[in-house]
Structures are given as structure tokens and as C-alpha cells.
Automatic annotation (TrEMBL):
This is Formamidopyrimidine-DNA glycosylase. GO terms for biological process: base-excision repair. It comes from the Bacteria. The gene is mutM. Keywords: DNA damage, DNA repair, DNA-binding, Glycosidase, Hydrolase, Lyase, Metal-binding, Multifunctional enzyme, Zinc, Zinc-finger. It comes from Mariniblastus fucicola.
């Protein structure tokens, strides 16, 4: 579930480890489904032990630990992963640990209830290759208004589905796509190539507004309680959701229509039929 606001909140929460030296990288004992760690943990540890952390960055929905050697540890939360510097929600789902020194935080933890997350150590060359291989588009908070429509407007795909494609733009997920399109008054099933310049301008505008506001609220903790920030506290943007997971409720924008739920690309989409007319 973690999308750009949640991952950016995690990044900010653990940014204080910059300047720390890694003592060791460990795959923690876990009886649950093992997460993918590449290379093998003993090889990964050999490359990072004794190395200083230069910065903590974000790449789309991934937290990136950049070291002074140029190597980077990429932590991808996927559905239920968390990056923490405090006690995890449970011990049984703890998957990975960086033990640290010369830092107020003694460790960086990766916790994952479902075990779908991934950790990879990339060299500078491998990282740059990943940036240029076409699998990841520009960051949703870095792309310009001018360039934004060109990532989508020749596609025949439904706009909600296209917004989730990380190769077009990185960071938007299921929750925020519904919220963005609702505020932009665009039907989620509208085809990208049939939207006007004015509609693309509104989508861009509310992409920035929704994501930045969600970051200020430290992300969305849904009813399952899985997402937590780096200090194991809840986010609060779920209280600001206008349509996501609010099927049957009166639309907060128009006060006329009810929020509907449909399925697109095997994911739930929420919208108001009155506000978001399909032309």
C-alpha cells in the first residue's frame, strides 16, 4: 500500500541516519515468508559494513540509502513494508536490520507483514542504469506541468489505470489516484487520449496538492492499521479522504451524488458519478 506520501514520510523519518556508519546488515530471524534480498545477505553485508551513509533519498515508492562509496540500498515496501528507526509493530514480521554507530539511532529496520517487500544493493552504475531503463517514470512531485500530459495523452488507457503505471510517472498509487481524479472532476474510466488540456492541467494541479497535503499529514493509515511512520505512529490523511473507501457516502464536493466503487485493473476505484461525469 505505501505510496509516495507514505514512503516520503518514512524517508523523512529515517533521514537522521545520514552520517552514521554501518556496523552490519542482517537478515533477521523470521518464520514467515522470506522477503527478497539481493545480493545474498552475507555478500551485501561485506559491501556495506564499515561504510558511512551519505544520505537517505526516495525513488518513487522506494527508500534509498546512499552510501559514500556510491552503493545504494533500495528498500521497496510494496504492500505492507515499513522502514523504521524504533521498535516495529511486531517482532515476528521483522525482516532486515542495519546496525549503526555514530548516530542517535542504533539501527534501521525493515518490517513487512505480508513479505512482499524487496531489498537490493545496487552499485552507482546499476542505479543509474535503473533510472534510464524505462521502468520508472519521473517522480510525481518533480515533473513539470508542461511535461505531465505528455506522459499520458497519447494512451488509449483509462486515466485511473494509467496514473498507476510507474513507468509513466512514479509514486501515485491506488488511494491517491482516486482522490486526485475526484478533485479534478475527471471520470476514472475516461480515456487518456480523450481528455482536454484543461483536464490535464487540473489533474496535474491536484496531483501536487493531494500528494503534498498527504505528506504533511504523514500519509494514510487505513483500517488494517498496517502503515506506520518511521516512529511507528499512524498517519492522519485517511481522515481527509474524500472518496477512497467511502462507497455509499454522500459526495463531500457536490453534496448530491453518492460515492461509487468500481474495479479497474483488479483494484478498487472510488468516484462520484455527479461530479465526475463520463463524457
Amino acid at each position: 500500500m505505501p505510496e509516495l506520501p507514505e514512503v516520503e514520510t518514512m524517508r523523512r523519518g529515517v533521514a537522521g541516519i545520514a552520517g552514521a556508519t554501518i556496523i552490519a546488515a542482517e537478515r533477521t530471524p523470521c518464520a514467515k515468508r522470506p522477503i527478497q534480498i539481493k545480493p545474498r545477505i552475507d555478500h551485501l553485508n561485506k559491501r556495506v559494513a564499515g561504510v558511512k551513509i551519505a544520505s537517505v533519498d526516495r525513488l518513487g515508492k522506494r527508500v534509498v540509502i546512499r552510501m559514500e562509496t556510491g552503493d545504494r540500498i533500495i528498500m521497496e515496501p510494496r504492500m505492507t513494508g515499513l522502514v523504521l528507526v524504533t521498535d516495529p509493530p511486531t517482532d515476528e514480521h521483522l525482516r532486515f536490520r542495519l546496525r549503526l554507530k555514530k548516530c542517535k539511532h542504533k539501527e534501521l529496520l525493515f518490517w513487512d507483514r505480508r513479505g512482499l517487500g524487496q531489498i537490493a544493493l545496487l552499485s552507482e552504475k546499476q542505479y543509474q542504469a535503473k533510472l534510464s531503463d524505462g521502468s520508472l517514470g519521473p517522480d510525481a512531485l518533480e515533473i513539470s506541468r508542461k511535461d505531465f500530459p505528455g506522459r499520458f495523452n497519447s494512451s488509449r488507457r483509462e486515466v485511473k489505470v494509467a496514473l498507476l503505471e510507474q513507468s509513466r510517472i512514479a509514486g501515485i498509487g491506488n488511494i491517491y489516484a482516486s482522490e486526485i481524479l475526484h478533485l479534478a472532476h475527471v471520470h476514472p474510466q475516461a480515456r487518456c487520449d480523450r481528455l482536454s488540456k484543461k483536464q490535464w492541467d487540473r489533474i496535474f494541479e491536484f496531483t501536487v496538492e493531494v500528494l503534498e497535503t498527504a505528506i504533511r499529514h504523514e500519509g494514510s493509515t487505513l483500517s488494517d492499521g498496517t502503515y506506520r511512520n518511521a516512529l511507528n505512529d499512524e498517519g492522519s490523511y485517511q481522515n481527509e479522504h474524500r472518496v477512497y473507501d467511502r462507497a455509499g457516502e454522500t459526495c463531500p464536493s457536490c453534496g448530491k451524488g453518492n460515492v461509487l466503487r468500481i474495479v479497474q485493473a483488479q483494484r478498487s476505484t472510488f468516484y462520484c458519478k455527479a461530479c465526475q461525469k463520463k463524457r
